[in-house]
């Protein structure tokens, strides 16, 4: 799967069980979404029914999350058409984002991998992924970046018979997607954004069914849990995001605890000798610096260095988070910190420069990737330390 959002919950009674429970919610949500995109309403219903059939958890945090998600999953389970299932998926993403906003704990996200080529459909998919990320992470800049991409993109399927009813209908569906994305971008109401996203998914699915396009059913039998390496990398990302949140709050002990948690994670499975493992070793060395930090600033530097090591690895293996286009990000709200953080994770000079500009820190906009950039980020997020 393209993306996993990390959910950082405040002081759970059993952090591991809560993390596992939230991961199960995510797996079901993403699987239902992918089924809708593929135009497979029956698979989406099966995913929702399986989630609804699970036993209610004992942990109060997980119980609360289940109560919030039960309605959207029921909506998907009862959907008669793929369009109705899409609306349910939108409601599901909105419910996740509303919970994260209320808890004020989920600022982390990993945007989708950018397409290898610039085909219209890959551009379209990337825009939809950013909207999904924005809804679940409660990130307006991400959502608007995705909506802008879809509102301006040419989504027409090439190769349809010219002058036919099929071509005409596909063109109408294309305009519906563009119009819905434009309305979603203008909306300031998260619930309305979620509804419009769900409607857009349904339109996409309808077009895929009509033209025999889209991703198809090939990947629906596999869920994120079937890819242990990806899941393990996301777990490291979630822990690192908590360390960042701790240093921003000035909580040295909490940040050090996340450094220790990074060290306690077992080595990722299935890594080839090169180029992955050298970077994993470097991440562990930086995590050890975090676990032993003496000051909040030291912890911030170590946290940023871990992120920078992740970015170097992502560059080496041509994987990891993506960066929205500058034109899609300009004019969106934000203090620049998230973009600079994303730049550490990707070695993106454009994201770093734009983040620094948004933060009003032109003096660090040209800081090169690597240790200098990690230190600049640390100084930015801990100005009083």
Question: Would you spell out the secondary-structure blueprint of this structure?
Answer:
Elements: H1 15-37, H2 41-52, H3 60-77, H4 82-103, H5 120-136, H6 140-152, H7 165-186, H8 190-211, H9 228-249, H10 252-264, H11 276-291, H12 296-317, H13 326-329, H14 337-346, H15 349-358, H16 371-381
Helix pairs in contact: 1-2, 1-3, 1-4, 2-3, 3-4, 4-5, 4-8, 5-6, 5-8, 6-7, 7-8, 9-10, 9-12, 10-11, 10-12, 11-12, 12-14, 12-16, 14-15, 14-16
Described by the principal axes of the CA atoms, the overall outline is globular
Main sheet makeup:
none
Measured by DSSP, the beta-strand proportion falls in: under 5%
Uncertain segments are: 1-13, 106-111, 221-227
Structural class: mainly alpha
Compute the separation of the termini in Å: 39 Å
Number of domains: 2
Summarize the amount of helix as a percent range. 55-70%
Please report the number of helical segments: 16
Order of helices and strands: HHHHHHHHHHHHHHHH
Oligomer: single chain
